[in-house]
Amino acid sequence: MEEICISDEKKEVIRISVRGLVEFILRSGDLDSRRGMIADQEAMQMGSRIHRRIQGQMGANYRSEVPLKRLVDCGDFVLSIEGRADGILEEADGVTVDEIKGVYRELELMEEPVPVHLAQAKCYACIYAKEKSLQRIHVQMTYANLDTEKVRRFHREYTQEELETWFDALVGEYRKWAGFQKQWAGIRGSSIRECTFPYAYREGQKELAASVYQTIRREKKLFIQAPTGAGKTISTVFPAIRAVGQGYGEKIFYLTAKTITRTVAQEAFDLLKERGLRYKVVILTAKEKLCALTIEQPSKASRSPECDPEKCPYARGHFDRVNDAVYELLTGTISGKIPQEGLVSGGYPPRPEGAVWDTYTRERILQQAKRWQVCPFEMSLDLSLWVDAVICDYNYVFDPRAKLKRFFADGAKGEYIFLIDEAHNLVERGREMFSASLYKEDFLEIKRLLKGKDKKAERALEKANRCLLEWKRECESYLLLKDIGVFVIALMNVSAALERLLEEREIALPDGEDWEQLRDFYYQIRTFLNTYETLDECYEIYGEICESGSFRIRLFCIDTSHNIGSCLEKGRASVLFSATLLPVRYYMELLAGTGEDYAVYARSVFSPEQRRIFLGSDVSARYTRRTEEEFRRYASYIEKMVRAKRGNYLVFAPSYKMLDMIREAFEELESGVAVIAQESYMTETQREEFLAKFSKDHEEALVGFCVMGGIFGEGIDLKRERLIGALIVGTGLPQVCHEREILKNYYDKKEHNGFDYAYRFPGMNKVMQAAGRVIRTEEDQGVILLLDDRFTQSGYRSLFPREWSGNEICNLQNIEKKLEKFWMDIEKGV
Asked: Positive or negative CA dihedral for 719, 723, 727, 729?
């Protein structure tokens, strides 16, 4: 931590931004997503352009982006309050501090400045007035509509004395939080120095951990191909914590694509905490899974819950209580009076002891939220400010709609360490997060909903619909579009009209679901417009007629590297790892790797004798070969695999249709083997029941049929006898569709192999993930059958991981003998 000399005494410096200070201390009242609109929060991300335009019009006496800082001596530490005033105007009649805010709401509806916006300007005015010994100073709040670029200003005047009195009270409220931060940093630092790796290092594991540490120290990116069993989670978490202890980072973000990997990450932190580490960790959960109201009243469940204080007691007065709730959760002490109506039955349970206390799970957050009667989701986001590590989904860092603005707002940057698990998923997730779509039919539905209720909104919707109708008439399958400027202007008008309706809520709609439909459509419009602002050569715009007959227009992000890179630049260093990060150059290109970044291939700890891989040369999953005869050949392979050694097996097919055809062919053989099959849209309970069938004590053979790339294709651990083999049908190529062909053509034009980027690489990743289900521990033994003649071709074999060397080509005539020999060798210990 930085130190500074105050009166010849060295003191630690704790930094806070002006905006962070006022937004944290001065918020109050209800949590309400109906009015004020989340769009204004999004506007903070999109306001740079309008800021520069306004600043450029203010004349020679106007200075833009003026850095300001106030140091406050708090005894054993110094609080540094820092920020940049958008503008300072110096004229003969006085000095004015200008604070500019871009918004989407109609400016005519604003009667006065937003209190926290004004407070931010007052902080700058206070700091500047004292620096320049000004007795009086003016404050100007400038609001600009980001769609129309209209401007509205509010003016205030203050004396230096009244600003200082106000500022001292504001800082006084924050001192206990800064004091906690300093005290905890000391406790954490001491524990890190004593913390050691929890196991004896496996072969290559110490070198892997050292690579992670050096990457963080040098502020680079590291791409790790880490085979199953390499211990990649603890080998990244431990050196990242050590780096924080050495001052090479201040917060770890452990990013995952699936719930199961979040659990593994939590276990890694808890393992170190059981050995004395003191580290505060929060696990962020999606809002729809953490809404206290819908948990208590499941009938009110929603995909995107609306925070309505008239309906939700946790939203009512949320900001009046949430800071105290967070402080108590962090420190175990009560910092304010708890409302009796906020207590759950039986009061608050005793404080947990040990490592568990500093881990904030979904259950603990819900418990504390109910105690204080605050929104658990919003409280968890506030908690993330004060913890040492955040375990969360990718979207909290990358998704423009969901990323944590408190860390990753426009212009913000921190000493963050990003540990990105299962990083192969980030390519397709990134394409989805940075793309946006609108459907013509939704415009007609909203127009029907508003018919006769708001003429202005109806006209705006009709203009946008006419653009879509014209493209739909031109479109036979899909249509690449170059200029959609007219449509975008129409969308801006739709957005403004819907914003007004949602703000005022003066029209009569039949029920709450219609308001939710209107709100969701509004968010889709805003997402599309925000995405349009970021378009560059990495995008294609296209329209298509979907299988349902509906027409959609899509802003498709093909090359994710720029957008992902912009997000990773918000931190200090990034470590991206996966068991299937192959070919690594492909992933480095799409995940913002540069020539200065590093790549490591971690060693496998498993013996090659534990596993045998067979390549079936006499079958194929090509569309032209998908016949009943071919399905029977696949069924025969399954029968011979089970006959060679009875046990539990998984069969992965490229689609549900092919899964059913092969399963039916296998069942016709009447082999006496138990069969279960994955179904589409399985609930969490159904998934658990499916996996529970794979018992090590299962008396008869079991074959589970799954879809490659589906929920059972990665992230599941069936150890030892629970799974002894996998049969993989086909090369996993994605289904041919408009988007895949657009992607292929895009890379062909860039003189890359478009087929590889669109089909082969994503397909082989699904194959490798499915194959990775078999060997999970050093005690596991099993077989993997890759059944498609294309696997024998060099174009596919060159993509095999190193651990797959020694594979054998087989056919239906010799596979059973090959399998029997493998299992006999295992029994003999050969």
From this structure: negative
CA 382, 387, 393, 394 dihedral sign is: positive
Q: Which residues pair with 726 in a beta bridge?
A: 650, 784
Could you give the residue ranges of the DSSP H alpha helices within 274-361? 287-290, 292-296, 318-331
Q: Is 89 helix (H, G, I), strand (E, B) or coil?
A: strand
Give CA torsion, residues 400, 403, 405, 407, to 10 deg. Answer: -130
Whether pLDDT at 36 is above 80: no
Beta strands in 298-366 (DSSP E): 359-360
Strands 416-420, 251-256: parallel, antiparallel or unpaired by DSSP? parallel
Average of per-residue pLDDT across 438-451:
94
pLDDT (average), residues 326-349: 57
Residue whose pair of structure tokens reads 């939704």 in the numeric block: 442
Nearest to 32 by CA among 519, 457, 361: 519
Instruction: Determine the residue type at 824.
Output: M
Contact partners, residue 501, CB within 8 Å, separation at least 6: 450, 454, 457, 507, 518
H or E element that contains 245: helix 232-245
More confidently predicted of 720 and 127: 127
Calpha distance 625→663 (Å, rounded): 17
Per-residue DSSP letter, 284: -
In this prediction, residue 587 carries a pLDDT of 96
Q: Give pTM, 2 decimals.
A: 0.91
Place of tokens 């060798």: 825
- Cα(229)–Cα(208) distance, integer angstroms: 13
Supply 556's token pair. 């498709």
762 in helix, strand or coil?
Answer: helix
What pLDDT is attached to residue 345? 36
Give Cα separations from 68 to 123, 128, 367, 648, 688 (angstroms).
Answer: 10, 7, 41, 66, 56
Does the pLDDT of residue 129 top 60, yes or no? yes
Distance CA 514, CA 516 (A): 5
| Cβ pair 649, 698 in contact under 8 A | no
- Looking at residue 623, its amino acid is Y
Q: Find the DSSP H helices in 47-148.
A: 48-56, 115-131
State how far the Cα of 556 lies from the Cα of 742, in Å rounded to an integer. 9
Which SS3 state, helix, strand or coil, does residue 277 take? coil
Report pLDDT for 796.
96
Count helices and strands (H / E) in the chain: 30, 26
User: How confident is the model over 367-393, as pLDDT tens digits?
Assistant: 999 999 999 999 999 999 999 999 999
In angstroms, the Cα distances linking 518 to 36, 426, 499, 696 are 15, 31, 10, 51
469 burial level (CB within 10 Å; 0-12, 13-18, 19+): middle
Cis before 298 (ω within 30): no
Going by the DSSP 8-state scheme, the letter that residue 548 receives in this structure is: T
Query: What pLDDT is recorded for position 336?
Result: 39
Q: Is the pLDDT of residue 346 over 50?
A: no
For the cut 90, the answer to whether the pLDDT of residue 260 exceeds it is no
Helix (H/G/I), strand (E/B), else coil: 440: helix
- The strands making up 573-578's β-sheet, listed across from edge to edge, are 359-360, 281-283, 389-393, 251-256, 416-420, 573-578, 221-225, 598-601
| pLDDT above 80 for 750 | yes
Of 101, 121, 84, nearest to 42 by C-alpha is 101
* Cβ partners under 8 Å of residue 776, min gap 6: 228, 229, 717, 718, 719
Q: What gap in Å lies between CA 642 and CA 619, rounded to an integer?
A: 18
User: How buried is 578 (Cβ within 10 angstroms: 0-12 exposed, 13-18 middle, 19+ buried)?
Assistant: buried
Tokens 């029907």 — which residue? Answer: 448
